Amino acid sequence: MDISVVVPLFNEDESLPELTAWIDKVMIANNFSYEVILVDDGSTDRSWEVIEELRSQNPAIKGIKFRRNYGKSAALNVGFEATQGHVVITMDADLQDSPDEIPELYRRIKEEKLDIISGWKKKRYDPITKTIPTKLFNAATRKMSGIALNDFNCGLKAYRSDVIKTIEVYGEMHRYIPVIAKWAGFSKIAEQVVEHRARKYGTTKFGFSRFINGFLDLLSIFFVGKFGKRPMHFFGSLGVLSFFLGIIMSLYVLIEKQILIWKGLAYRDVTDQPLFYLSLVAIIVGSQMFLAGFIAELLSRNAPERNQYLIEKELK
After folding, report:
1. In this prediction, what percent of the chain has a pLDDT beyond 90?
2. Are residues 194 and 241 in the same domain?
3. Are residues 243 and 192 in the same domain?
4. Pairing of strands 116-120, 87-90
5. Which is nearest to 248 in space by CA: 238, 240, 258, 236?
6. Distance between CA atoms of 38 and 24, rounded to whole angstroms?
């Protein structure tokens, strides 16, 4: 099969018939073999009934329904597991992503041997309350991940099948699939300017809490990707630095007192100086961080996936 289209959705019953008809038209025009996997993330409207009707009309349409709302990442992860196509396209169900972009995305994945193509909605029709947080989010993600993408959160993306069969998406991690893929060794990541259409049906699901949760997830991905198999490098380094900084401060306080006594000058007791207590705190915190790194290292070494690596090719 050429293409699998994964569409996560929540309360999008009005847009589904138009979206699936549009996808079908594009696929037939380009002679693609395809499937459309609609993942209903616990909708409370008629979305599932519409999916059942569409399935009866077109066998290429498949549906998965969650019992409750789990979030976009969970919907994508389940959809990825069900795909059979060589190239996987993801898009939102609200008609803000254009299926007309699919042929070019497919061509570039196949001809340029890319792992991921992320859409870039260069011209957006979103309110300023959504565009400003998005710009800040994208800038922070570029800085921390080293991936030069302008729009990490664009729902319209194309993947080589190997990518989505290797990675796992959870929480609010769908925004960071390129980052997760990069940490997994899929480094051929490109960008493509795509059309962003004004919302035709329903209301946006965006909230400010998603921006906060997304930033916290970025920190999680960065830490786990960089130090997941060697936590001692992170906690141990900070612990040793804090410990020795505390030692230096305490020695400074003690030596200063001895010099003042030797010169016959007035001096304060060590316990009367705030720097002494700061040094004690630094020593204690450093010791705790070192122990935390040591314990984390023991847990990591005993984890069943400690020696799991991604092998791309093998000759025997």
Report:
1. 48
2. no
3. no
4. unpaired
5. 240
6. 14
